[in-house]
Amino acid sequence: MNLYRMRRGATWKQFMMAAAENPTCPVKGCHKPADECQVHHIFSWAGGGWTNAKNLTTACAYHNGRNDDHRIGPPRNGRFERTARGVRWVNPWDPPPPDLVETGPTT
After folding, report:
1. Could you list the residue ranges forming a coiled coil in this record (predicted)?
2. 12-90 sits in which CATH class?
3. What is the pLDDT of residues 43-74, one digit of tens each?
4. Domain boundaries, the chain
């Protein structure tokens, strides 16, 4: 289910797909259940990200608020990234994952 740039908000089906992939907030140690989470654009909507299943994840309000939407350079507070193994939270002190999968538009 892909909406590209037609709509910012995720549909119920997109939420259910994100919740199936991440039944809790993807941050290690955070156990907030998906039904209490928000839908988050991994590559930010403001930065040109699409409302597509591969670009969405669940995130608790705290980690969604801490996320760095600016994707140039290392994260200041942390950010979500999609890898070949799924969505992960990258702390500012973590090295970049070798299997990073780009989720934003390619232009």
Report:
1. none
2. mainly alpha
3. 999 999 999 999 999 999 999 999 998 777 77
4. 12-90
| Contact yes or no for 39/14 (Cβ under 8 A) | yes
User: CA 50, CA 2: separation in Å to the nearest integer?
Assistant: 8
How far apart CA 58 and CA 64 sit, in angstroms, is 9
pTM of the model: 0.81
User: Which residues of the chain have a pLDDT value below 70?
Assistant: 95-107
Buried b (16+ CB within 10 A) or exposed e, 29-47: eeebebeebbbbbbbbbee
Nearest to 64 by CA among 103, 94, 22: 22
